C-alpha cells in the first residue's frame, strides 16, 4: 500500500484547492520558509485520519483548522481534506485497488467522514488502519514533537508507540471492549440478583396466601347460595302486592293522562291566541322599525351623493397640480444628464494622470521592498504577541463573566432557599390545622351515619339523579383539569419564547448588553426582531441575511459611534450597526423585476424598509436548487439567489449549501411565539367556558337538592349533612395529602439548592485560579510587546530617510486618487438624482391615471345611489299600507279567549281529586318498594345482583337456616385478612421467578465466557509483544550503530519483565567514547538521533506503507544529517518517505521537492521546484 495523493481545500492556510501527488520511487521533500504552512500538510494528514485533539493540530479549538481569512480574504465556513492510497496489495481490508479517505468540517461544529465517497464513522476509519502503523498512536507520522514523545514521554505514551509497532493494538482494543462488556454484564447480573432475591422471598408467602384465598372463595360460594334462597322466601308475597298496586296505579295514571291531554289541548288553543296577539304586536313593531330604517338609509344615500361631488372636485384640483409638477421634473432630467456628461469627461482625464503616477509609485515601492522586509517581520511578531495578549484578555473576560454569573446564581439560590424554608413552615402550620379539622369531621360523619341508618331505605329512588350530577361534575372537573394543564403548558412555552426574544438568546453575546444596558435613543433592534415572513420563506430569509440577521438598526452614524464606544469601553465584543440615514436601497434591473425578491416577502415597519431593501433588494428566491441554477445562469450570476431550503448561489458564481444543523431559528421562534399566544388565548377561553359549565352544573345540583328537601324533608336533612361531611372529609384528606406532598417537595428542593450552591462555590474558586493565571500570562505578553515596540521605533528612524522621496510621490498619487473618487462620487450622486427624478415622473403619471379612474368610479357610484334612494321611497309607501291592514286583523281573535279559560278551570279541579287518590296508593307502593330496595341494596353490596336475578340461584335443597348462615360467616371471619388477588399474584410472581432465574443463568455464562476471552487476549498480547519487542530491540541496536558509529551501543529495557503488558520501557544508550547512561542525560542532538534510531528500528521490523518526517533532522549537524539520509535511502525500498525539512543534505537526497510559500500573506501556495530553488529555504 502506498500514498498516492493528498488534497486540501480551506484547511488552515490552504485557502484554495491544493493537491499534492506523492511518487513512490524516491524520497519526497516539502520545503519552505518558517510559517509558510509546511507542517499544515502533516496536520491535514492527521486530521483526515480522525485526530480529535485541537492541541495536537496546533490549535485551541477544532474550528481553527478552517481557513480563518486574511486582511483581504474572508474566512471560509468549511474545510475538506482527502487522501488517496494505492491498495492494489489489499493491505487495507477493502475490496478496492484504490482507497480514498475524506473528512469535512464546518464552523458550526459538524464533521463527516467518507471512505470511497461513502459516509462512515470515525470508528470505521480507526479500525481500518489498526495495526498498519498509520493509526493515531502509530509511527507513520514523526512530527516536530515526536522525538520528545519517544525519549521524554511517560511510560504509558511510550508503550502506545511500541504496542502499535508490535502489532498488539487490535488485541488491546478487543480486550478493552470485552472489559467494558464484562463490566456491563456484572452490573446487569447484580441488578438481576437483587430482583431475583426479592422475588424469591415473595414466592413462599404468596403460595400460602393463595391456598387461603381458595378456601375463602369456597365458603363464600356456599354462603351466597344460602342467603339468596332465604331472600327469595322472604320477598315472595311482597312482590305480588307490588304488582297489584302498580296495575291499579297504572290505570289511574291512564285516566289522568287523558284529562291532561284535554287540558293540554285547551292550553295550546289558549297559547295560540296569546301567540297570535304577540305576533301581531311584534309584526307591527318590525314594520315601524323598517320604516325608520328606510328613512335613515335615504338620508345616508343623500349624504354619499354630496360627498362624491366634493371628492370629484378635489381630484380635478389635484390633476392641475400634477401636470405642472410633471413639466418641472422633465426639465430637471435634461439638466442632470448634461451635468453628468461633463463630470464623466473630467473623470477620464484624471484617471489617465493617475495611471502615470501609479507606475512611478510602483517603481519606487519595489526599491523599498528589501528595506521593508525586516520591518514587516518585526511588525508580524508584534501582532502575534498582541494577538496572544488579546486572546488571554478574551479568555479572562469569559471566565470573569462565568464567575459573575455563578455569583449571581448563588444570590438567587439563597433567596430562593429562604422563600422555600418560609413556605415549608407555613405548610407545616396549615397541615396541623387541617389534621385537627379532619378529626372533627370524621367524628361528625360517624354520628350522622348512625342517625341515617333508619332512613336509608327511603332514599334509593332519589340516588340516581344525584349520581348523574356527580358523574357530569367529575367529567367536567377532569376536562377542566386537563385543560388547565394544557393552558399552563402553553403559557410556559409562550413565556419561554418571549423571554428568549427579550434576552436575545441565540445571538452574539455583545448584543444583549448593548440593547438592555445602553439606554440610548436611536438604537432600535436587531434585524431578526424587526422583520416577519411566512413560514415558507423563513429558512431562505435567514440564509440570505446570514450574519446580517444579528446586525442592529440605528438611526444614524452618531448613534452607531456611541454604541461602538460603549462596546469598546466594556470590552463586550463587536457588533455591526445599520444606520437608517446611511443605508441605500438596492433595486434589481428592469429585466429581473418579474422574479420574487427577498425584500418582497418580508414584512417590516416602513421606517426600516430602506435597511431591508439594502440587505435583500438584490436577492432572488427560488423554490428548488434546479430553478436557482437556471435563474443564476439567466442573469449571468449578477444576483444572489437563495432556495427555500437555504442553499445560496452568490453573485459571481460561488455556491453555498448542504446540511443545515438544528440550531436556533430566529424567524421561526418569532412565528412560533405568535402561534403560541393565539393558541393560549383560545385555550384560556375554552377553560373559562368549562368553568362556567361547571358552575352552572353545581347550581343545578344545588336546585335539585332543594327539590328533594321539599319532598323528603327529614331524610334530606340527614343525607345532605352526610354528603357535606363526606365532601368536607374528602377535601380535608386530599388537602392533608397535598400539603404533605408539597412539604416533601420543599425538603427536596432545599437539598438540591444546597448541593448546587456547593458546586458553584467550587466552580467560582476554580475560575479565580484560572483568572490569576491568565493575568500573569497577560503581563508577560505585554512586556514582550513593549520590547518589540522599542526595537521597531529604532528601526523606523533608519527607514524614514529612504521613505521621504517615496512619501512625496505617494501624496501626489493619493491627492489625484481623491480627486478621482470625488468625481466618481459626484457622478454617482448625479446618477442617483437622475434615477430619483425619473421615478418621481413615473409616480406622477401613475397618480394622474389613478385620479382619472377614481373620477369615473365616483360618477358611477353617484348614479347607483340615486337609483337606491328612489327604490327606498317606494318601499316605505308599501310598508305603511301593510301596517294599517294588520291592525284590523287582531281584533276578531280576542272574543273566544274567555270561553277557553272557563273550560280549563273545570278540568284542573277534576284532576286535583284524582291526584289525591293516587297519592295514597303510591304511598303504600313506595313502602313495599323500600323493603325490596333494602334487599336490592344488600344484594348489590354483597353479590352485585338484583331481586329479579336471584331466581336463577333457587335450590330447594339449600340450607336457609340463619344459624347455618351465621356459622358460615364465622368460618369466613376466622380466616382473617385474605389477599383475594393472591392466586393471580402467585401465578405472576412464579412466572417472573422462573424468568429471572433463566436470566441469571445466562448472564453468569456470559460473564465466564467474556473472562475467558480476556485471558486468551492477554496471553496472545504477551506472547506477541515479547517476540516483537525482542526483534525491535535487535533492530534498534543495529540502527544505533549505523547512526552513531560501530562502537556505539544501545538497547530497550523492560523494567518489569513479569508484567509485559504494563511494564515501563527504558532506553539505554552509549554513544562512541562515552559511558553508558540513560536517555535523560544525553544532549538534545543525541536524543534526537536516538529517537530517529528507534523509529528506523520499528520501520525495519514492521515497515509502514509510508512515513511523514516533520523537521526531525533540524537538531542534527551535517555529519549526522548525512548518516540520517544514508540510512533513510535503505528504508525507501519498503517505506514511502515524505520529509518536511530545511536541511540541504536532506534536499540533496530527495528525488522530488515541493515548495510551500505565501505569495499573499496568510495563504499557502504549493510549488514544484528544483534543488537550486529549494536552496533559498535552507537554514544555515
Describe how the helices and strands are arranged:
Layout: E1 2-9, E2 18-21, E3 28-31, H1 38-48, E4 78-86, E5 98-106, E6 111-115, E7 118-120, H2 122-128, E8 141-142, H3 146-152, H4 155-166, H5 169-234, H6 236-452, H7 460-502, H8 511-517, E9 523-526, H9 527-530, E10 531-532, H10 538-545, E11 552-554, H11 557-570, E12 577-579, E13 603-604, H12 609-616, E14 619-622, H13 625-634, E15 640-643, E16 648-649, E17 655-656, H14 666-711, H15 713-889, H16 897-943, H17 962-974, H18 982-1044, E18 1049-1054, E19 1065-1070, E20 1077-1078, H19 1084-1101, E21 1106-1110, H20 1118-1131, E22 1136-1140, H21 1144-1149, E23 1152-1160, E24 1163-1168, H22 1171-1174
Parallel strand pairs: 3-22, 3-23, 8-21, 11-12, 14-15, 21-22
Antiparallel strand pairs: 1-2, 1-4, 4-5, 5-6, 6-7, 9-11, 10-13, 15-16, 16-17, 18-19, 19-20, 23-24
Helix pairs in contact: 3-19, 4-18, 5-17, 5-18, 6-15, 6-16, 7-14, 14-15, 18-19, 18-20, 19-20
